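Suppose you are handed a protein chain with no further information: no name, no annotation, nothing but its sequence. What can you learn? This example shows the usual starting point.
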Amino acid sequence: MAAHGDVLEAIRRALPAGLVLLALSLAVIAARDALWRGPVIVPGPVAAWLLSQPVDRTRVLRPYFRLTAGLAVVGGVLCAVAGGVLLRLTGLSSLGPGLAACLPAGLCLPLLAVVLALQVERRTSLGARVRAWTPYAVLLLVVLVAQTAWAATGHRLPVLEQVEQGLARYWPAWRPCPSHSTELPGRSC
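A reasonable first move is to predict its three-dimensional structure. Written in structure tokens, the prediction is:
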């Protein structure tokens, strides 16, 4: 059982940076995917018919967009349930409050990714910005991977902690819970 305790402690240490990594990865993947595909995938015959006809495309594409958003929400809810169970296994929360803490992100992040993909496809200027910012976003993802891995092994990256503390002065969402608190971030801290 000690090995499980060590693994759970490593997960507990890596969880904050890992969750930020997952959210940023979702945004980068959605934005990059929208550059060549967009948020809606239509069957080949429908696409061929749609491109050759002078019809209102929104009436044809809207059901596929709703399907995409619905599937994204289902995936997000499943991830939220997994997050609630993970919080329970690591001892950070009981199952009910853990699910309640994970469900808003599980519902909102996938929908935000779908809307981001829609905006990237609709606005060419936003697509150009996504292309320009992708190397910096990937660099940030690599830094977050390093921070997550170091946290899991029990090490710290003081430079990143100083940046995060500097951000906490200006943005309340970056303020950490006190070290003695066992509450979930964003709750009663």
